[in-house]
Amino acid sequence: GAVTPAKAQGRCGSCWTFSAMGPIEGAYALKTGKLKDFSEQQLLDCSWGFGNNGCRGGFSWRGLVWARKFGVTSSRTYGRYLAQEGYCHCAKTDKCDTVHFERVMTVPKYNQTALRRGLALYGPASIAINVNRKSLKFYSGGVYDDPQCPPNTNHGVVVVGYGVEEGQPYWIVKNSWGKFWGEQGFIRISRKKNQCGVVS
């Protein structure tokens, strides 16, 4: 109940905005009991001064730093996602339904236990994975288990949970490639070692 449906970033290098907004949506849902769709477009338009580069890429942690300072607005109020950079509005103003939060929690790298505990206590987390493997790009379902998927990361996503299927432990990861990729936009990645860099 703390995860919105998967969205599509389109032909824009904005995965970092979706990776940043996922934990905010989750924390808001756990705090208020209401699931709200916050605006990735706002981060895309407004966080340039924090070292992000719009559709040319950015870092989710920088987006979260911006969001902590200025607050975030719902997609309904800010406007739909455009898959391109637009004009920044709703920042530094009370005219939008802006939500503020106090802090950003971090989890130690390479620590699966800490990440599982963080998910259980605080909800979805912003992470990055490696998406270079063709087997991942064409993933359609099941537990993704590819020992050759490297741990160096290049794509922002949201880890939303974990589980076990037939003795195979996995992470549940929300991607930004639309609902027709994977399992309605999600992928279950094996928790063996550090496949695809989930805990990097």
UniProtKB/TrEMBL annotation:
Q: Which keywords does this chain's UniProt record carry?
A: Disulfide bond, Hydrolase, Protease, Thiol protease
| GO molecular function terms attached to this record | cysteine-type endopeptidase activity
Q: Please name the GO terms of the biological process aspect recorded for this protein, alphabetically.
A: proteolysis involved in protein catabolic process
Q: Which Gene3D superfamilies has this protein been placed in?
A: Cysteine proteinases
User: Peptidase C1A papain C-terminal domain: which residues?
Assistant: 1-200
Q: Which Pfam families match?
A: Peptidase_C1 (PF00112)
Q: Which residues form a coiled coil?
A: none
A single GO CC term for this protein reads: extracellular space
Source organism, top-level taxon: Eukaryota
Q: Does the keyword Metal-binding apply?
A: no
Q: Which SUPFAM superfamilies match?
A: Cysteine proteinases
**Which family, according to the similarity comment?**
Belongs to the peptidase C1 family.
Q: What is this protein called?
A: Peptidase C1A papain C-terminal domain-containing protein
